[in-house]
From TrEMBL:
One Pfam entry name: 2Fe-2S_thioredx
Organism encoding this protein: Thermanaerovibrio acidaminovorans (strain ATCC 49978 / DSM 6589 / Su883)
Keyword Signal: yes
Signal sequence coordinates: 1-25
Stored InterPro entries: Thioredoxin-like_sf
Name of the protein described by the UniProt record: (2Fe-2S) ferredoxin domain-containing protein
Keywords: Signal
Keyword Signal on entry: yes
Amino acid sequence: MRGGKRFLRLALALALLVAVTAPLGGTRAALGAENLLVCKACDKSFYDIAVRVVEEMNLTHSVTVRRSSCLGACSQPPVVEFRGKVYASMTPEKLRSILREAYP
């Protein structure tokens, strides 16, 4: 019975790890993936578009889409941040171009 207790402890620890590391307001993060932050303050619909673009480009293991607070370019939504650079007036085509350059 002792092995059963160890298994239950391991299963509980794994469940807690998954619960703690699951992103808030974003796609499930891949280990080592870069964040693509989408400003939720100025545009609420581009998040879904960004997730779709990342999925279509098969970059889900490389890029994690997350909602963020204000990125500071409210006058030109939608706004995203990738690799420390803020991009305004974002479109699906612009996002594809940025990601193609980052992941040739």
